[in-house]
Amino acid sequence: MTTAPPTTESPDRRGQSASPPPVGGGDGSSSGSGDQRETPLPWSQLGVLLAVGLAEPINCTLILPFLYKLVASFDVVASPRDVSLYASILFTSFCVSQALTSMLWGMLSDRFGRRSTVLIALTGDLATFILFGFSKSFAWALVARSMNGLFSGNTGVVRAIVAEIADDSNRPRMMALMSLTWNAGVLIGAAVGGLLADPVAQYPHIFGRFELLRTFPYLLPCMVGSLTTAIGLVVGLLKLKETLVVGRRKDSRRPAAEESDPATETSPLVGGAAHQTPGPPAQSVLALLTPTSRRVLGAGLLMFLANAMSDQLYPIFAATAASEGGLGFAPRSIGFSLMVAGIAVVYLQLVAYPRLARKHGVLWCYQMGAMVEAPYFFALPCLSLLAAHINRMLDARAPLPLSWEGPWASRAGVEYCLLWALLVALLLVRVVGNVFVYTSINLLVANIAPSKATLGAMSGMQQVAVMCARITGPLVSGALWGWSIGSGLPYPLNSHLVWVIGGSLMVLSWRVSSRLPVSVNTFAAGRDR
């Protein structure tokens, strides 16, 4: 395992270190250790954090299945085109609010403690999400959704707690578990929203007599989704312990030797505030933006933007007719392709990533993930050529909506099998890259924090980058896709344009990360312990 930097090293010195080894290998001294046994996971606290971590992804995705119908029921819309516009505004309001407050939550946690910050955010999250279920006008929905985003910006604080309760041997596995929790929350949110939206219409024999659900058809999924937040809040109140190393005691007349004695400081795992003193003032944002931290955050922003563009565009690309640069897939085929690729996430996050991170280091894993994912962007739009060829073989007068029940036994059966094999392979490539870059960037941001008192602020800056990407990525990719498929211009300005931009962003992210020092593989804030 890489030796921790000496305590006399300043954060800025990390940006002046030697260049790291290339993606394909490197000096053993810079990587994680493959011979150290992993410390057992602190499940008493990690379990609490996993429960808390489910709230944001569920809140983020639960409204997607019924968002269109909800907005269409408001008087503000006059045409289907208006529905799309107002639905986009309503969805992005969550991300905008979250981006505005993520940094604030992190800095508040650095000043007043992690536990109280998380519990306050969960309380507001619970109340505002239920308020959204009572929406009968666009203004009400917009305010409730925006307020929900304001209280959902504490993901960075949760990551800071994970970084503080972990050590270098088990931190990769703990971050992988947090990423797995996010993916589970996304699936749970979408399922709850789709199954329970407008329950009176979907299940009249069960909910037909409930006038409240008839008046507010989307209240039930919001209330069920809020149960996860409520569980996280209750468990947090009972079990979550403070992890921030707080400041010195008020008696400033102690000798210097006594002040440096760890026994005079509050234990980092003691819950409650009775034995705590306020932490030191948090460092300014500018002080945290060292050359190394700027490169880490810059590489992450490029990666977040590329993936936000892909997340929004893939379903549209898959559903677009092959003659226009898509695949012509039916909705069932799109869902099946995503499901098949997602199966690999569990193994990658719980087994493969922690082992490789301990053996090669977090930085190597990030660079490897970026270079693995980049080919997905450049190759995926090429499948449209094969889909169009299948249409021509079947003499389809109109674009054929390919589906899982497609022409397997026809003369295009071999080509159809090849199309699916290539598609699943590319989606698996993307999943591998996604797991490695997202888990690694979480670890890198934690590692570059100069002290444990700044972990929340660093994680907050990362969350701002994530939210900015979620806001701009879909808007940019949607606008460029609509223009490119009708431009009639040659490559790369045709239907490949958005994908080429996404792949270029991933390559650029790898290039920025290649300038990082190998010292980012270790947890610098551990010097506070």
UniProtKB/TrEMBL annotation:
Keywords: Membrane, Transmembrane, Transmembrane helix, Transport. Residues 45-521 form the Major facilitator superfamily (MFS) profile domain. It is a multi-pass membrane protein. It is found in: Membrane. The chain crosses the membrane at residues 46-68, 83-105, 117-134, 174-196, 216-240, 296-314, 334-353, 374-394, 418-444. It comes from Coemansia biformis. GO terms for cellular component: membrane. GO terms for molecular function: transmembrane transporter activity. Its main location: membrane. PANTHER family: MAJOR FACILITATOR SUPERFAMILY (MFS) PROFILE DOMAIN-CONTAINING PROTEIN, MAJOR FACILITATOR SUPERFAMILY DOMAIN-CONTAINING PROTEIN 10. This is Major facilitator superfamily (MFS) profile domain-containing protein. Pfam families: MFS_1. Residues 1-38, 249-279 are annotated as: Disordered.
